Records
---
Amino acid sequence: MKYVRSILVGLMATSLLGACSRDGAVQQDIDRATLQPDNLQLVLRGKQIYFQDCASCHGADLEGQGDWKIRSPEGLLPAPPHDESGHTWHHPDQMLFDMTKYGVQKFAGADYKSDMPAYADTLTDTEIIAVLSYIKSQWPHNIQKRHDGLNKQYERLKD
C-alpha cells in the first residue's frame, strides 16, 4: 500500500509541476522520463556529472553515507546509497527524475528537511537522465530487471 501511495504522490507531483530552464523560459516536465543504462555515451556523461555533483554525498561507489536511515540531531537523513543496497531502485524512473530535478520536498512536503538540493536550475533534463542512467547502469542485472518491472507497473497506473 505504501508503494502505491508513493506512486500516486509522484503522479500528482508530476502532473502539477512546471519549471524554468536556465534561460528562464518555462518548460514542461519530461512526460515520461526513461533511464537508458545501455546507452554508453549517456552513461559516460552521467558518470562525469555524478562525480562532479553527487559523489561527495552519495559516495564514489554509490555507497551513500553511514547510518543513512538514522536522522542526525538536526533532523536530517544522511545521503542514501544508490547501489543495490539502497532504495533508489524501488522508485520508478519518473519519480527519480522529479526528485532529482525538484527536490524531495515536492514529494514529502515543503517543510521536509533535506540536504539534497533540487537540480532544476543546475542540470538540464538530459543531464539528470544521464546521471540516473549512470546510477542504474551500476546495479546488478537482476536489480535492473526488477526496476524495469517497477517502471512497467508505474506506466500501467499512469495510463
Note: The chain has seven helices and two strands.
---
Amino acid sequence: MQLTETTLSSKEIFSGKILHVTHDEVALEDGTHALREVVRHPGGVCVAAIDKDNNLLFVRQFRYPYGEVVLELPAGKLEKGSTPLENGKRELLEETGAVGYSYISLGQVYPSPGYTDEIIHLYACRVQEVGDAQPDAGEFLHVERIPFLTAAEMVLNNRVFDAKTQIAVLKAAALLQSGQI
C-alpha cells in the first residue's frame, strides 16, 4: 500500500485575497478516481511570547466565522519574501507591541489536512520589551497577560478553543518545565 494520490486535473474555483480554492480530480492507488476540494493558503505563524514573570502574551479578537471573541496567541499569515520567523517577530510586534528574543521553533502544524494545505509555524520566545501594539488596519485586539500555568490549565480545561494556541501553549509549557526556555 503506497497511500498516494496523483493529481489528474486541477481547476481554481475561487481566488480571494488570502485563500484560493481548487477542485481537483485525483487517481487513487487502486486506480479509481476521486474529487478533492482544496483550500490553498499561504501558511501562518504563531508565537508563544513569555515575559519576565512567566506570563504569556495573548490577544482577544472577534473572529467573524465563529461570531465570537477568541483568545489566541499572537499570530498571522505568512507574507511573501519573509521567513516564518521574520513573520512571527512582525506579528508579535504588531499585535502586542512586544519585541522578543531567544526564539525557538515549536515545529509546524497542519490545522486541517482534510481540506487545506495551510501550515502554521510555531515559535516561543522571551519578551525583551513591550511598547504600543501596531495592529493592521481593521484589526482590533485586546492584549492580555496570562500566567503560564493558568494558560496551560485553560487549554486542558477547554477554555482556549484555538488549535494553534493550544498546541503552542502545551509545547512551550513542556519546554519551560524542562528548563529549555
Note: The first strand starts at residue 5 and ends at 15.
---
Amino acid sequence: MSQVTLFIATTLDGKIARKNGELDWLMNRPNPNQLDFGYHEFLGSVGAIVVGKTTYKEILGFGVEWPYTGIPVYVATTDPKFQTKTPDTFILTSDLTEFVTDLKQKINKDIWLMGGGQLISAFLEKDLLDRMILTLIPTTIGEGIPLFSEINKETSWALTHVQSFETGVVNLTYDKESNHG
C-alpha cells in the first residue's frame, strides 16, 4: 500500500510562503550547481498528488508548462464551481479520509501532499500523513503562512534521514511513529 508524504520547503522560522503567498525566498539562495534538493528523485516515487486550491493557483502563476502531466493531481477545495486548467487534474470535494484511504489502496506509488497550510493541517488532524520530507531553507521571513497551523492533534515523528547540501539547505525526513498519541 502506498503512503502519503508531505514534501515541502520551509524557512527556518517555519513558513511555507509569505503572507501574500509569494515564494520568492525560495529562489534568493545561491545555488550555483542548480541542485534540486531531491525533488526529481522524490517525484519518481509519486503516483498521485493532492494539493490545495491556493497552492494549485500559485503553481499556475509560475508561468511554466504544467510539470505534472501524466500524474493525477487532485485539487482539494470547498468551492463547487472551481475548475482546473491543467491535464490529469481533478477536483476533490469528497470526504478527505475516505478519498485518501481509497487512493492509497488503488495506486502502487506514493501520494504527494503538496500543500498548502490548511490542507497539511487537515491531513494531520485526520491522521492521513505517513511521512514528511521538509526541505529546510536557511532563511527567515517573519510574517508568512505557517507550515503547521491550527493543529489540535499530537503526533510523534521519528527522524529517519538527514541530507545536507552545499547551499546550506537540509532535507529532514520524518516517519510517523506507530505509537503516536
Note: The first strand starts at residue 4 and ends at 11.
